[in-house]
Structures are given as C-alpha cells and as structure tokens.
Amino acid sequence: MNALDIQDVKAGYEKLQVLHGVTLNVQQGSIVAVLGPNGSGKSTLLKTVFGLATIYDGSIKFEGKDITHVEPHQVARLGISYLPQVENLYLDLTVKENLLMGGYILSEIERETNLEEALDFFPGLKGLLKEPAYTLSGGEKQMLVMARALMRKPTLMMLDEPSANLSPRLVTEVFQKIQELRKRSGISMVIVEQNTSKALEVSDYAYLLVSGRINYHGESKEVATNKEFGRLFLGL
C-alpha cells in the first residue's frame, strides 16, 4: 500500500483550474520530489492533498483511505503534515510555544514526550526555546518548522520549498536533515523544490509538473541524467 495515491486529479481555486489530471504516487518511506517552473501548480498540488483547494475530479488516497474531500484539520489528524513556504510560524511566540502549538491536539504527557524527541532530532533548537521565532535565522526557522511538524508524529510530510531564501550551506544542512528524518523515522515525504539538483539528490522518485500537468516522471537518478530534462522542464 502506498502512502499517497493521487489519481487524475483536477483542482484549483473555485473556478480557476490549476491542476489538469495529475496522477502521482508516493511509496511508503520514500521521498518524492515535485519539480517544475514557477506557476506550474506545485504548491497547489500540496494544498489539494491537504484539503486547501477545490477538487473538481479525481481522487486522493492516504494509506488506502479516501481523503479527496476531507477537511484540513481532519487530514492533519490522519497523519499528514503540510509545511508551507510562507506564514509557517507564529513569529511572536517563542520557539517552545511554537513547538507546543504543533501538538495542541495531544495530551500533556504526549506533548512533553514528543517535544523531547523533536529537540533530540533538532538539538540546535534547545538553546533557543525562550527566544521569539522572529529572532531566528532562516535556517533556524526552517528547522523549527520541521520540528513542529514532528510533534504530531506524522507518517507523511509535505514540504513546500524548504530551501527557499537559504544560503548554500544552510540548504545542504536542511536537506541532510530531511534525509536523516526519513532514515530515523521512516516518514514518507513529498518535496516541492526549485533547487532541482538538491531535490533529485535526496529523493527516490521525481515528478515534473508543467502547466498543471505531469510532463515527466521517473526515478530521481534517471531524471538527473536525462539529457532532455531541460526541454521537458520548460514544457517544450
């Protein structure tokens, strides 16, 4: 059974259709990269899975359960975490408060236990627990976003542009954490990313989304060496 099955999905926002029959599968424990030019519908794809877009046709299944028209809060309870590119933290709250907000549906004991585990995975946050989130660097904020997502112990994590606005060194660090997270916890991941080379380096499988349609897909190693990739990326 796959972690995620998207079948011929047509979706968008009210009357604005963005996705035109997208089919995509995520195997349990795998990392899938969704690549493509700006405006191709990559972020909309993640929002569609999380119940934040209008689905006109097609189906979405999470671990075999149909979630095509399930509300976002219910999707989150099932075990899916969505990490948007912007507005992904409560900037005026402290690091610890942000983490605890990630586990607001948990019992007090579960929150404390999961907090310890999240900080064990992101030890750089331990000395920042009392700091407001707005004081963090770009890399620290991204680590906090990922740590907060872990508070609910999801089985599928969807990340929208995790390397956006980061220095090359921090980009490498973020992707190392993504690989480590999958290795240690077995979480399945979908990564929307403009840094094509890094995304292909850490993922198992890749989909190329152009103008709301899957233009190409294959194992990441094969995609990375495909001489036609540039042309396919531009939809030519």
Question: Any overview of this molecule?
Answer:
The structure is a single chain. By secondary structure, the chain is of the alpha/beta class. The strands form 2 sheets. It has a 6-stranded mixed sheet, sandwiched between helices. A 4-stranded antiparallel sheet has the order 2-1-4-5, with helices on one face. The protein has a domain of 125 residues: 3-Layer(aba) Sandwich (Rossmann fold), CATH 3.40.50.300.
Keywords:
alpha/beta; 10 strands; 6-stranded mixed sheet; 4-stranded antiparallel sheet; 9 helices; 236 residues
Our count of helices gives 9
Task: Round the mean pLDDT to the nearest integer and report it.
Answer: 93
**How much of the sequence is in beta strands?**
25-35%
CATH topology of the domain at 1-76 and 188-236: Rossmann fold
Note the main sheet: 6 strands, mixed
Tell me the CATH architecture of the domain at 1-76 and 188-236: 3-Layer(aba) Sandwich
Assign the structural class, choosing from mainly alpha, mainly beta, alpha/beta, alpha+beta, or little secondary structure.
Answer: alpha/beta
> Over the alpha carbons, how many angstroms does the gyration radius reach?
17 Å
3D shape: globular
Helix content: 25-40%
The number of strands is 10
Specify the oligomeric state.
single chain
Low-confidence stretches: none
End-to-end Cα distance: 35 Å
CATH C-level class of the domain at 1-76 and 188-236: Alpha Beta
Task: Give the H and E element order.
Answer: EEEHEEHEHHHEHEHEEHH
How is the largest sheet built, in terms of strand order? 6-7-8-3-9-10
CATH-assigned homologous superfamily of the domain at 1-76 and 188-236 = P-loop containing nucleotide triphosphate hydrolases
